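lol ok so funny story. i was supposed to be doing the assay writeup but got distracted and ended up predicting the structure for this chain instead. priorities right. anyway since i did it might as well share w the group, maybe its usefull for someone
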Amino acid sequence: MQDDYHVLEVAIRKAGKRAQTLRQSGLSVTTKGRQDFVSQADIAVEDELRQVIRSLFPEDGFLGEESGLTQVINAKNSGVWVIDPIDGTTNYVQGMDYWCVSVAYVKNNEIQMGFVYAPDRDEFFSAKKGQGAYLNGIRLQINDPEKGQELLGLGRSNRRPVQEYCDLILMLDEQNIEYRRFGAGALMLAHVSSGLVHGYFESHLNSWDALAGLLLIEEAGGRITGFLNNDGLLNGNLVWAASPLLWGELHNWLCKKERKSDQASVD
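and the output, tada:
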């Protein structure tokens, strides 16, 4: 398994570099929905990773943002690889550096491995359950920020009412908590694990954007929501992930707002 792990890491790095090369040579971009795009590179990178994973782990399932679920699985008993070939496609297409390749492995309804690779930033995050989280080989440890120095990453889902997002912004302003929205949830979650930001919130995130980063945060000592509850693998879920103290503050806000539909995934 260790040799396979190394081969997979090499494949993820290679896929990220291929995305860089494809961008330099020009891209075709298709609109999937409002503020939702897919590029030629998204499809090529996902196909490349799927082939590698199938050769290494032929018994496992595969869930990709572009190709969907490629075989019928029971996610609670079987392994499934969950891939976002390029998270932050808009950033990627526009030539910004804030995008990444995200790969996670789920078995027995738990996240077992997670990788986030940001080629333009030369950042390779990796985590195995129970074995810590790493950035470019250096072990990560999340620390609580000083009061008044908190920085929260945000995302906004079109699947949820915009008022939820507005309420959160108002609450953060009232508590003098700074926030940023960079347009790549998987990479922002990874940056919680490294301390670049101290937490991340999004009212709905798909599993291919969330799982790798959530494991990174948990393995680095942060707190996360139970994303896989309520069939989060296939349907997505709410995300709260942060340093322990900040997570508690956000959790309390959620409880006060009594979002009953999301409560099961927070507890």
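The radius of gyration is 17 Å. Residues 2-24 form the longest helix (23 residues).
back to the writeup now i swear
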